[in-house]
Specification:
This protein is an alpha+beta fold and 144 residues long. The protein has two domains: 70 residues; 66 residues, Nucleic acid-binding proteins (OB fold (Dihydrolipoamide Acetyltransferase, E2P), Beta Barrel). 43% of the residues lie in helices and 20% in strands. A hairpin with a 2-residue loop joins strand 4 and strand 5. Helix 1 runs antiparallel to helix 2 and helix 2 runs antiparallel to helix 3. It is rod-shaped and about 75 Å long. The relative contact order is 0.10.
């Protein structure tokens, strides 16, 4: 069984490199548990249970953390609309929950207050920060 688990580790790692889904890599780690159990002479059922337990633990506990970590794009590497989140802007007119305009990266954008971060209307010529983009509208909050 040691050869079986070793082959499973190699195949799973190859599939992980080909797909980058984080499933096969965790199966490879789980197979190492099966390999360790086989190396100490555990019964085959224990080897499979060790593999399944380690793999499932990885899928439900480690995979979400890894996906979250690798999904983050550094601010300097963001492009398009994603690059606008966190950018400073200048209000061109009063911005309320329903309407407004800001000058953002040299362009005029429609804007409205982010309901999670601001409640009071923001006066013209105020510095604001973009919390997110909703379609073609910048959701903003005051910097002051």
């Amino acid at each position: 069984m040691i050869w079986f688990w070793g082959l499973t580790v190699v195949v799973a790692l190859g599939l992980e490199f080909a797909t980058t889904t984080f499933y096969f890599g965790l199966l490879a780690v789980g197979s190492l548990g099966g390999l360790a159990a086989a190396a100490v002479g555990a019964p085959v059922i224990i080897q499979f249970l060790a593999t399944a337990a380690i793999t499932l633990l990885g899928i439900f506990a480690i995979r979400p953390l890894a996906l979250n970590r690798f999904a983050r794009v550094p601010i300097g590497a963001r492009t398009g609309v994603d690059a606008l989140t966190g950018a400073e802007a200048l209000t061109l007119m009063s911005v309320t929950m329903h309407e407004g305009q800001v000058k953002l990266k040299g362009e005029t954008w429609s804007a409205r207050l982010d309901p999670d971060l601001a409640f009071e209307p923001i006066e013209p010529n105020s510095r604001v920060c973009v919390s997110r983009i909703d379609g073609a509208t910048a959701l903003i909050f005051p910097l002051d």
